[in-house]
Amino acid sequence: MKKKSRFLQTPIEPFAVEAGLTADQVLTRMERISFQGRNLATAHRIWQKMLQDDVTIFLGMAGALSAGGLRLVVAHLIAHRYVDCLVSTGANLYHDLHETRGQSHYLGSPTADDAALAEERIDRVYDTYASEEEFCSNDAWIAKFATTLETRPYTTREFLYLLGGHLWKTTGRDGILTAAYRANVPIFCPAIADSSIGMGLSQARHRDATAGHIDVIGDIVESANIVIRHPRTASVVLGGGTPKNFINQASVQAEFFDDRVGGHRYALQIVTDVPHFGGASGSSLEEARSWGKLATDAEQVTVHADATIALPLLVSALAASAQDTLAARKPLAFDPSGPAMAVNGRPFPPARFEAR
Amino acid sequence: MKKKSRFLQTPIEPFAVEAGLTADQVLTRMERISFQGRNLATAHRIWQKMLQDDVTIFLGMAGALSAGGLRLVVAHLIAHRYVDCLVSTGANLYHDLHETRGQSHYLGSPTADDAALAEERIDRVYDTYASEEEFCSNDAWIAKFATTLETRPYTTREFLYLLGGHLWKTTGRDGILTAAYRANVPIFCPAIADSSIGMGLSQARHRDATAGHIDVIGDIVESANIVIRHPRTASVVLGGGTPKNFINQASVQAEFFDDRVGGHRYALQIVTDVPHFGGASGSSLEEARSWGKLATDAEQVTVHADATIALPLLVSALAASAQDTLAARKPLAFDPSGPAMAVNGRPFPPARFEAR
Amino acid sequence: MKKKSRFLQTPIEPFAVEAGLTADQVLTRMERISFQGRNLATAHRIWQKMLQDDVTIFLGMAGALSAGGLRLVVAHLIAHRYVDCLVSTGANLYHDLHETRGQSHYLGSPTADDAALAEERIDRVYDTYASEEEFCSNDAWIAKFATTLETRPYTTREFLYLLGGHLWKTTGRDGILTAAYRANVPIFCPAIADSSIGMGLSQARHRDATAGHIDVIGDIVESANIVIRHPRTASVVLGGGTPKNFINQASVQAEFFDDRVGGHRYALQIVTDVPHFGGASGSSLEEARSWGKLATDAEQVTVHADATIALPLLVSALAASAQDTLAARKPLAFDPSGPAMAVNGRPFPPARFEAR
Amino acid sequence: MKKKSRFLQTPIEPFAVEAGLTADQVLTRMERISFQGRNLATAHRIWQKMLQDDVTIFLGMAGALSAGGLRLVVAHLIAHRYVDCLVSTGANLYHDLHETRGQSHYLGSPTADDAALAEERIDRVYDTYASEEEFCSNDAWIAKFATTLETRPYTTREFLYLLGGHLWKTTGRDGILTAAYRANVPIFCPAIADSSIGMGLSQARHRDATAGHIDVIGDIVESANIVIRHPRTASVVLGGGTPKNFINQASVQAEFFDDRVGGHRYALQIVTDVPHFGGASGSSLEEARSWGKLATDAEQVTVHADATIALPLLVSALAASAQDTLAARKPLAFDPSGPAMAVNGRPFPPARFEAR
Question: pLDDT for B124-139, tens place per residue?
C-alpha cells in the first residue's frame, strides 16, 4: 500500500452531538474540526498553556464588550487572575462604571427609529440602548472625583486604580474597575481622551484649570517596565483597537532597553477585522512576528469571531478546565496604588525605563 | 421619580461565568447580552419554537461544512428530524460521501506551501487537506453508480436518495447522505453541476451518452409542491449560497400557485456575508419580507458567525433543550424513493405544480 | 553606507492627486500604493497581459451585478471580447433580461419598510427595487419561449444562446444575453435551477410535461472541452459563487483528460468574501494552486472590493489602455448555436470529453 | 395604464463604459447604480455640498493609510482646505514623518516569511515593508525634538503643530504634518500614547523626567471649542478607530455647553468594518443620530470599501469637480501655534469650554 503524504497526518474528526455536553467538552470536540471552530478550540488550549507557564498575561479589550454584556466575564478573568494586566478602551471602562453605579444598558433593536431615540435621549449601540441622562450623571460623577485628586499628572494606570477604589467604596459592586482594584491588576487606557471618561476629566478641567491632568506617556514607560521586569509575556486580545497595539508596543519598547524580551511567548486574538485592508486591528499574528511583537516560536491563534459568541463559550470552558491551574498559579504581585507602580514589592524607577 | 423611556424596558444581563455550564446553559445566559451572542441565543429559542409548531423545516447548507467537520452534526439534525428537507451544495454532499466511504479530510495549515501540496496532489480547503487521488476514486465510484441507473432524467432529489441508499448498503456508515436515506428526508442539490458529484456524472456521460441526466427543473416543481402540500414552513440556513435562495424560491413559487403559502413562518440564518454588497448570501431576512419569502410576522434571526463555531454550540444545546419536543414531533412522512415523491402516502402529480 | 535589505527594493510611491486624471491614469498611479488599491491596479495590469497572451478568458459573475447597474459593463466586455466565455448565476441573466425587455430596476433604500414594500409587491435587493408584477411577466415570457423549443434536453449554453437570440430579435436592445448572442460568446449557468429563469422553465414544465429539460451535466462536458481544445486559459471572477467554482472545475476536469492543461495561466478575482471561513467564494488563489486550478507560476491577484466600485473603474481604464490590444486580439471563434458547440469551425464530440 | 408604485421612481441607469473617462465622469456615471458604487458617488456629491456650505470639516484618519501610499492625498486635502481639522492615529502621522524625513516604505508581500523579515529587522504592514532601523532613528529624532520643548504639558494639537514646523524647516518636503503646519490646519491625535510618536516621547521622558508631557484632556476641550465657535460642522471619516469617535465626541461635548450645536450637518465615512459586531469603527451613521452626533436631517453616506481604492478615485474626482468651490471657499482661519488655539484672530479661553 502506498505511503500517505506527509501532509495527511491527522484526520478531521467530525463533531459528535450529544445532549448535556459542557462548554469545555464542546471545545474539546472542536479541536479536530476546521476553520474558526478549530481556532477557538486552539485558543482554549493555548490559554491553558499560558496559565501553566511563567508568563505575564496582558488582556486587550476593544469593541462595546461592557455595554454588550461581557463585563462580568472580564471581571471574572481579572479576579481569578486568568490575566495580569488589562489594556482597555475608555468606553469599556465607562460602560462598566455605568453598570457598577447601579444603572443599566438595555435590549434594543438594530433597526430602531433613531430620530425617535434621539427625541427621548436614548443612545444606541447597535442592538443595545442607554439613557443619555444617566451617561451625563456618570460624567459629572467622574468630573467630581477628578477634582478631589492632587494637582499633578496621573498615569491612566494610577487614575483608574483610584477610580476603581472610589467605585468599590461607593458601591461595593462587582465589575471590571472594582475587580481590578481589588485584585491589584493594573489597567491602562492609552486612548482615554477618546472616551466619556476623558469627557468627565475635561469637565473637571472646566471647573478647575489644574484638574484632569493625565500622563499617557508615563503609561508607555510603565507598561514597558512590566515587560522588562519579567520578560516573559503573553497577549490575549479581544477586538483589536488601541489595546492590541499598546500591548505589542510595550513588548517592542521593552526590547529596546532589554534584549531578553523577544516578543510575546503566546498570543491569541478574537477579532472580526481582516488583515487585507492593512489596519492594525485586523493584522495577523504572523505579521506581528516581523516586528518582534511575537516570539518566532510563539504559540498563537487568531479566532475570527464576535467576542460575544466566542468569549462566553471560551471562558465557561476555562472555568472548568483551568480550575486547578489557576489555583496553583503564582503571578506577579502588582501594587498599582501609587505614582510609581511596584512589582513584587519593588517599585519601578520614576519616569525611566528600567535598565537591565 | 421620572418614568423610564418606553425604549428602556429590559436590561442587559451580563453573562455570568461558572464552571461546568452545559451548552444550553451557556446559550440561556447569552439571551440578554448583545450583538451576535444574543442572536445565537435567539436562534436557539426560535429553533425550539419551530420544532413545537406544525411547520416543515428546510435546512440549507453551503460552505465547506462537511470537509470542515460538521457532517455528523447535519446527519444528527436529519436523523432526529430537527429538519425535514435538506438543500445543499454538491461539495458538502461529495465531502460527506468521501468520509462515509472511509476516507478522511486532514488537519492542515492556511499558510501551507501550495506548490508543495500540488506536487503531492493534496487539495487544500483553507486549513484542511484532502487527497486528490481519493477524490478521483470517488468520482469514478459515482460515475459507475450513475451508469447503473435507468436511462431517464432523475431529479437531484431522486438521484441523491438512490446514491444515499447505495452508500448505506455499501458502507453501513453514518453521514448526511446515509442519514437522509434512512430517515426518508429529501435532499435537493440545485447546483449539482457545479460540484464533484456533477463531475462524476459527467464521467458517466463520457462512458455512456445516455447516462447522467439530471432534471434540475423537476426539483423546482417538487420543492414547491412540498410547500403547497403543507403551506407552513420554516427555514434554517447555514452559509447562504444556492441553498438559501432555493429554499426561498420554493416558497415564492408555491405561493404563485397557492395563496395560503405566505412565506416562511420562522427563519434563522448563520452567515458570514453582509447585506451591503447586494449578494443573496448576505441578504437580510428583513429584505426577504419584501419578496414574500418570509411571512411579515415571522420570527427570524441572522447570526453573523462562522458555522463551525455557532453550529456545534447551538446543536449541542438543542440536543438537551429540545429532547422532549423532538420525541413528540410529528413531521410530514416523505417517500423520496421514486420519480415522483410522496408525502404522507400521497404522491405529487408528475411534472406539475400541485393545484390547491 | 550599509546595503539595503533584499526585501526593501521598490519604494511605495504615494498617490499624487491631480485634476482631470482619467480612469487608467488613476489606476496607474495606484500601482505602487498598498492594500486593495495596489491589488486593483495589479488586476488592471494582469487583464492587459491576458489580452496580449493567447488564452481563452472565462468571466464568472455572481452577486446582484445586473440589478445593480453593471450589466452594460459586462455586455461591453462580451461585445469587445475582453472575455470569451461567461459563467453566470441565473439571477444576473434574469435581471439582464428584465431590463432588456424594457423594464427597470429602481433606486431604493436599504432601510426601507419591507412590510410596506411587500404590500405593494416591490422586491428589494439591498438598496434597489423591482416590481414583482414585471418579474412575473418575465417568468411567463420565459415559460412561453421554453415551450417553443424541441422536446429534448438543452444545455444551459444552448438554451441561453437561443434565449439571447429570441431577446435580440424581439427587442433589439443591448444587454448581456443579447451581446453574447451577437458575439457568439457562450454562457453557462450551472445553477440555473436556483433562479427565476429556472422558475420560468418550471412553469413551462407545468404547462407541458415534456418542456423545460435542461442538461446541466452536458454543460460540464462542454466547458471542459473548451479548455481541452485550447489548453491555455485565464479566469476573471466577480463575486465568487457557483461561477467561480465552475470555471475552475472546467480546468480540473479538462486536466483529467488532457495533461497539457495545467490550470489557468492568469487569474483575477474581485470578491468581498474572505478565506478564513472556508467557503469557496472567499477562497484564495494561492489555495487554488494546490488543486491545480491555477498554474503554479500563474499571475494572479485578488481584489477585496465591491464590484460596483472596482469594475466601473477597472473597465473604464481598460477601455483606454487595452484598445489596441483588443483590436489586434484573435480569440477562439465559437459557434454556440447548436446542440454541440463548435470552436473555430470544428464541433465538439457529443456527450464526450474530447480526447487529446 | 396602471400607476407606478411610489417606491419605483428613479430607474437604475447601468454604467456605460467609454474610453477616456475622467475620475469625476466615472463617479457621475456611478450615481444611479447600486450598492457601494452608488454610495461612493453619493460621497462625491455630499463632499461637494459640504464645501459649498458654511461648515467646518473634520477629517478622521485611521488604518495604515500613510504607509499605504495615501499621505499625499491627505496632504492635498489639507493644503487646499477640502478639510479644516485633522484627527489621526499616531501611526499615520509617524509614517508620514518617516517619509517626509526622506525614508520610504516598500512594496512587499502579504505571504512573506515573517521569520526572515524579523531576521533582517524589516517590519511588515500586510503587503508593505519598512526598516526597523529607520524607525528607531525616527523615534530618536522625535525624542530629541521633544526635549527641546518647554517643560509644560502640550496638547497634541500644539505639539503636532510644532513637530510639523520642525519637520518643514528641516526637510522642506510635502506631507501631512508639513501641509498642516503650512496651512494652519490643527491636528489632534487622541491616542498618541498608542503609537511610535508616543514611544519617541517616552524616550524623551527617559532622558529627562520633565519632558514628554502631553495633555490629551486639553485636546478634548479644544476640539469642542472649535465646534462651539462655529456650530456648523461636517465629518469625513476614513477607517473608523479613535478619530471617528473623537470627532463625534467633540460635537457631543460641545452640545453640552451650547445647544446650537445639534450634531454634524454632513457625514461621510469610508470604512471596512460592519455595524453588527457593535464596535464604534463599524457603527452606522443612523446610529450616530440617536446620540446627537449627527443632525437628524444630515446628509450622510457610508461607503464600505478600502480607502486605498475609494480615496484616490474620490479625491481625483473632487480635484476636478470642486475646483471652483474650493477657490471660493472661506473656511475658519486657525492659529494652532500657541498653548491656546485662536480662531479668526480670537483665542480660546485656556482650560475651559467656551460659554456661549
Answer: 999 999 999 999 999 9
Contact between chains at C274 and A274 (C-beta distance less than 8 A): yes
pLDDT bucket at B356, cuts 50 / 70 / 90:
low
Those residues whose C-beta lies under 8 Å from the C-beta of residue B35, and which sit 6 or more positions away, are A64, A68, A126, A127, A128, A306, A308, D276, D277, D278
Contact: B23, A23; criterion CB under 8 Å? yes
Q: Identify the chains in contact with B, defined as 3+ C-beta pairs within 8 A.
A: A, C, D
pLDDT for B1 equals 45
pLDDT tens figures, A123-181: 999 999 999 999 999 999 999 999 999 999 999 999 999 999 999 999 999 999 999 99
What distances in angstroms separate CA D221 from CA A153, D191, D250, one per listed residue? 17, 15, 8
pTM: 0.98
Chain A residue with minimal CA distance to C275? Answer: A35
Quote the longest CA-to-CA distance of chain B.
84
Helix H, strand E, coil C: the string for D45-99 is: HHHHHHHHCCCEEEEEECCCCHHHHHHHHHHHHHHCCCCCEEEECHHHHHHHHHH
pLDDT of residue C1 exceeding 50, the answer is no
CB burial class (10 A; 0-12, 13-18, 19+) of residue A207?
middle
Closest-CA residue of A relative to D283 is: A126
* CA gap D273, D280 in Å, rounded: 9
Query: Are the C-beta atoms of C89 and C247 separated by less than 8 Å?
Result: no
Q: Is D293 a catalytic residue?
A: yes
H helix intervals, chain B: 23-29, 35-52, 71-79, 90-100, 114-119, 132-147, 156-171, 176-183, 196-207, 216-229, 241-257, 285-290, 307-321, 323-328
| Optimal mutation site among C3, C10, C17, interface D, most CBs of chain D within 10 A | C17
Q: Does C35 contact chain A (CB < 8 Å)?
A: yes
**Crossing angle for the helix pair B35-52 and A307-321, nearest 10 degrees?**
90
Tell me: the pLDDT tens digits for D195-208?
999 999 999 999 99
d(CA C298, CA C286): 10
| pLDDT number for residue D124 | 97
Question: Whose grid coordinates read 407541458?
Answer: C208
C-alpha A57 chain-centroid distance? 10
Q: Kindly report the length of chain A.
A: 356
Residues 151-190 of B with CB under 8 A from C: 153, 190
The residues facing B266 across adjacent strands are: B234, B299
Residue with C-alpha cell 448535556? Answer: A20
pLDDT at D4: 79
pLDDT at res. A355: 77
Of B35, B111, B277, the CB nearest to D278: B35
- Selecting from B68, B221, B352 the residue whose C-beta is nearest the C-beta of C278 gives B68
Contact residues, chain A, for C278 at CB < 8 Å: 34-35
pLDDT, tens only, A12-32: 999 999 999 999 999 999 999
3-state secondary structure of B192: coil
CB of B286 within 8 Å of any CB in chain A?
yes
Three cell numbers written together for A102: 447601579
pLDDT attached to residue B304: 98
pLDDT of C2 strictly over 80: no
Reported confidence tier of residue A356, pLDDT bands at 50, 70, 90: low
C-alpha to C-alpha distance for A292 and A264, rounded to whole angstroms: 8
Rounded CA separation D330/D57 (Å) = 12
Binding-face residues of C in 287-316 toward D, CB within 8 A: 303-306, 308-310, 312-313, 315-316
What share of chain D in percent tops pLDDT 70?
99
Which residues in chain C are closer than 8 Å to B245, comparing Cβ atoms?
91, 194-195
